[in-house]
Amino acid sequence: MIPGSFFLVLSGLLANVLTFGERGLLASASSGGGGGVSVGEVFDVLLFRGGYNTAVVVAGTTMLGLAAGVVGVFALLRKRALMSDALSHATLPGIAGAFIVVTLLGMNGRSLPVLLTGAAVTGVGGVLTVQTILRWTRLKEDAAIGIVLSVFFGVGIVLLSVVQRMPTGNAAGLSHFIYGQTAAMRAGDAWLMAALAAVAVVSAALLLKEFALVCFNDAFARVDGWPVTAVDLLMMALVVLVTVAGLQAVGLILVVAMLIIPPVSARFWTDRLPVLVVLSGALGAVCGYVGAAVSALLPGYPAGSVIVLGAGGVFVVSMLFAPRRGVVATVWRRVQLRLRIAGDHLLEAAYERSPRGDAGLDVATLPGGVVDSIALERGWARWLRPLVMLRLRQRGEASWTGSALRVNAQGLTSGRRVNRNHHLWEQYLISYADVAPSHVDWSVDQVEHVLTPTLVDELESALEARGIVVPAGVADAERGDA
Q1: Which of 183, 346, 405, 418 is the most exposed place for a label (fewest CB within 10 A)?
Q2: Alpha-carbon distance 429 to 441, whole Å?
């Protein structure tokens, strides 16, 4: 449902921009602007020339995205992603409660600092409640987070109904904190976001080693004398600051997406923590920047939702097309590995069935019936066989003649290598792992295809240390013994 909803909303946005007559970019560009969105207006918004309020909103959301992206990395690595969700929902009773208390005291209950202070208090209270449940009960973390999230949010909704019955309640506008009201951002709010981004970046730069140690191995850090509790509290404090600051921009429901989606997306592209922090912050900033700009160009769409939608698009692209961890790259590597293993099986079978192995023999023929039996035994899919034949032909190792597989000298050399790797690993398991000879074949069949030259040398050295020598042409030696 989520991918379908994402593409549905995205297609709606594209339709508004590209095809809705005078409102589309193409029509606007050709008509010189009119009542639509022109290319010049797009560049004006992107270059902070679209008006004072628009520039403030774009700058503020960009800084928020930067801060959330940097802080979210450590929340993700610390396995506190769902904790951020509980924290954001726990801010609602603080917002409503702060308004009620301050209003009853005769002061301005709509003051943003007052409301955010209340949000921070109950947000921290929600996190502490989760920790208390985990420490004193046998509940798991997901159950504790679900309890706190729903109960605190329910209390907030009840308090909002109390606010609505107050004389000044109708003008409070507290419900905007649920879904966000980016358009109400002022210059002071943008400066607050910039300060928060600076704090997040400086903290990550100065305490990267400490944060990494606690995230990856807190038990070792505690034994080694590091102040794990203090470092953990500092990381959660940064999460609280980002969550509270993001309430006005994207709302308490969507702010968790700004903390989770950028680091998760960046994780697909790198394995190095410093690069991950930088990339996550950059993705968060870009999502905030582009989302606010699109919302300014299309006023019918709320900025908070567009920002999160853009972040979701970045995640989908990263998940699918990242070069190492992406779905496409992973599927491609698995298909390539499966084709290589299947081809190795055919070449090894051709080598084993050749009259003299590779001793003076340039060509060997593997009958079609043997190929069929190998395919049946190995459980090949129907699409796999033609691809295996194509790969062997492209590598110049074999060709299919219509009724048999013709393996040349290069293919026989590859088959001999796989055959020898098979016997090396088999002898190693029997000699060093004390595995019965009747139980090693399945394991050997999995490993023989992935042994590197370095591992082959190490296996040879280990076996030679016990007086075991596997000849270069194992199949030849076996035939000679026979």
Answers
A1: 183
A2: 10
Do 302 and 184 lie in one domain? The reply is yes
Instruction: Verify that 306 and 191 share a domain, yes or no.
Output: yes
Q: Are residues 223 and 262 in the same domain?
A: yes
Among 323, 342, 360, identify where a domain stops. Answer: 323
Q: What share of the chain is helix, strand, coil (3-state, %, to 5)?
A: 75, 0, 20
Domain hosting residue 463, numbered range = 326-482
Domain boundary among 303, 323, 343: 323
- How many other CB atoms are found less than 10 A from the CB of residue 287? 32
Question: For residue 316, what pLDDT is reported?
Answer: 96
At 326 the three-state DSSP class reads: coil
Q: Lowest mean pLDDT of 133-142, 170-179, 271-280, 389-398, name the range.
A: 170-179
**Residue 351 belongs to domain with CATH number:** 1.10.10.10
Q: Do 63 and 242 form a contact (C-beta atoms < 8 A)?
A: no
| β 364-367/398-400 pair status | unpaired
Q: How many residues does the chain have?
A: 482
Q: How many domains does the chain have?
A: 2
In whole angstroms, give the CA distance from residue 277 to residue 282.
Answer: 9
The tens digit of pLDDT for each residue in 243-256 reads: 888 887 788 878 88
What pTM, to 2 d.p., does this model score?
Answer: 0.79
What percentage of the chain carries pLDDT values higher than 70?
88
The DSSP-derived string for 117-146 is HHHHHHHHHHHHHHHHHHHHSS--HHHHHH
Beta-strand relationship, 398-400 and 404-407: antiparallel
Model confidence at 27, pLDDT cuts 50, 70, 90, reads very low
